[in-house]
Design goal:
Elements: E1 4-5, E2 12-13, H1 14-17, E3 24-33, E4 41-48, E5 60-61, E6 73-75, E7 89-94, E8 104-111, H2 114-117, E9 124-133, E10 138-145, E11 154-163, E12 166-176, H3 179-187
Parallel strand pairs: 1-10
Antiparallel strand pairs: 2-12, 3-7, 3-9, 4-5, 4-8, 6-7, 8-11, 9-10, 11-12
Length: about 190
C-alpha cells in the first residue's frame, strides 16, 4: 500500500491508512534549516484528556520527560542540530495501550530559546510529519507543512484523536508565537 499524502485539516482514520491495523507506530518529524542557519528545534507531545487538558504533568512528553506514565509514548531524544538525514526527531507510540484517560495527542515543534536568539520558522524549509508502521517499517501517512510560518516560534504539526474504533490523524500546521511554555499553560489544568 502506498503512503497516503494528507492535506492540512483533512483527517484520516489510521485504520484506513494501512493494510492492517496499526498498533506500534513512529511519528517522524523533519525539517531543513535554510542555508547558513542553525536552529535547535524540539518536538513535544501533549497527551490530553476529555477536558482538553493534561491529566497530569507526566503526560507532557518532551526532551526532559521522554516517556509517558503508561510507557506507551516515548520520545527518542533531542536532536539539537537538525543535521541528520531523514527524521530529525521521533516519537514511538503503542496505540492500543495508551492510557484510556488520553483522548488526544498534540504534536508541537518549538524553537529552543527562540525569542532571545531571534530565531523563527521562517528559517526552515521542507518541514513534515509522517506516520510509520513499526512492524512493517512502511510509511503510511505523510504531511508536508507547505505554509510559510514566517516569524512563528512554534508549530502544531498534527493531532491524533481517539475514536471509538481507533485513532484519527489530523494534520493541523498551525503556527504561534506563544513559546513552549505558552502551550504548557494552555494545556495544564487550572487549580
Amino acid at each position: 500500500m502506498a503512503t497516503k499524502i494528507v492535506k492540512k485539516g483533512k483527517g484520516i482514520r489510521l485504520k484506513d491508512a494501512a493494510e492492517k491495523k496499526l498498533s506500534k507506530i513512529k511519528i517522524g518529524l523533519g525539517w531543513e534549516v535554510r542555508k547558513g542557519g542553525q536552529l535547535d528545534l524540539d518536538a513535544s507531545v501533549f497527551m490530553l484528556g476529555e477536558d482538553g487538558k493534561l491529566p497530569s504533568d507526566e503526560y507532557f512528553v518532551f526532551y526532559n520527560n521522554l516517556e509517558s506514565p503508561d510507557g506507551m509514548v516515548r520520545h527518542r531524544g533531542d536532536n539539537r542540530t537538525g543535521d541528520s538525514h531523514g527524521d530529525d526527531e521521533e516519537i514511538l507510540l503503542n496505540l492500543p495501550y495508551i492510557s484510556p484517560v488520553v483522548k488526544e495527542l498534540v504534536f508541537i515543534v518549538s524553537i529552543y530559546d527562540a525569542k532571545s536568539r531571534r530565531h523563527n520558522f521562517g528559517n526552515l524549509d521542507e518541514a513534515y510529519i509522517r506516520v510509520l508502521n513499526l512492524e512493517t517499517q512502511v510509511e503510511v501517512l505523510h504531511y508536508d507543512l507547505d505554509a510559510d510560518f514566517g516569524d512563528d516560534t512554534e508549530v502544531e504539526f498534527a493531532r491524533l484523536k481517539r475514536e471509538d474504533d481507533g485513532w484519527r490523524f489530523v494534520p493541523t500546521g498551525y503556527g504561534t508565537k506563544i513559546g513552549l511554555q505558552g502551550y504548557v499553560d494552555k494545556f495544564i489544568p487550572e487549580l
